Amino acid sequence: MQRRDVTRDDGTWVGLSLDVQDRHQPGLCVFSAGQRLLLSRLSRPVLLAVVDEQLQGVDFWRTDEYRSFVPPLRADVARALAGSPQRWAHRFAQHVIDSPDSPLHKGRWLLSSESPLLRRRHAETSHAEYWSSMLVHGHPDGYLDWFFHSCSWEILPLRPMPDVDDSRVKAYRKQAREGMLPPVLLWWVSGLDCHLILDGHARLAAAIAESVEPPLLQLHRTVPRDDLSARTDEAVRFYERELARFAALRAVHGPAVPDGTATAGPQLVRLLHDLDTAQQPTWAWPLPGGEDQWHRIAREVTAGRAWPQL
Length: 310
Known about the structure:
globular, alpha+beta, 7-stranded mixed β-sheet, 6-stranded mixed β-sheet, single chain, 35% helix, 13 strands, 24% strand
C-alpha cells in the first residue's frame, strides 16, 4: 500500500492518493447480477438494489447488517484535528487500509475533501434544507430517483439516520457549533450513482440540525495503475501537438502568434491532475449464482415480502 498527498500546482491540498496492490476483493463488496446489485459486508447482505428498466432510478432494500469500520472518534481527537481535512484524511485512510471490511481493493483511490456535493448548494438554500434534500429516505426499502436527481449524486445512509434526540447527535451538535465536527466519510458508487455513508451518520445528522456545512471526505476510484502510463503519455503527446500547431502558425503569420505554452501548459497540468483525481466507475464482482442467488437473498432479507414491486 502506498499513499501520497495530491496537491494543485499552487500547493493547495486536494486529497490523499491510495495505491492498493494486494487486495483482490474487498470486504465491503458490490456484486452484480444483470440489473440487480448486492452490497455485502464480509458475506452479509447490507443493501440490495434493482435498477429499473427505463434507467430512471433504483429500488433498494437496506438490511441492518452495516457496521462502520471506523472506531468512535474521541472529542479530544476532534479538537486536535479540527479544520485540517488533510490530517483527517490520513487518519481515516489508516482505518480504510487496515479494516478487513472496507471497500478498498487493488487499484488507485482518492480520499478527498473536494466532493461535488459541496458545490451544488444555492446561496439562497440553507445548509439544513440542502443536505436534507440530498439524503435518500426510506427504511428498509426506498427509491433512488435518477430522473429527479440527475447528476446530483444523492447520499444514501447504510443505516437509518439517528434523530436529533440521539445522544451522539447531541454531542456532535456541540462540536458543529464549535467548528470541530469530524468529517463524514462517503463512498461514491457508480452503479447506484450516489454516495454511501461509510461513517458519520450521526455527524451528518448533527450538521443538518445545526444547519452548517458538514466536512466531508469522499472515497472513489481513480485511473488504474495499468492505464496511468498510457494516459500520461497521451497527455504529453497532446501538449507536444499543440506546441507544433502553434509553431506552424508562427511560421506562416510571424512572431505575433504566441508559442502556445500559455494555453497548452495549463491544459497539460489539468490532464495530469485528473489522472490522480477523476472518478472512475466502481468495480462490481459477478454474484456467484447470478440472479437466482440474488432472489434467494432477497427473499431471506425481506422475509418473503413481494419486493421490489416491478
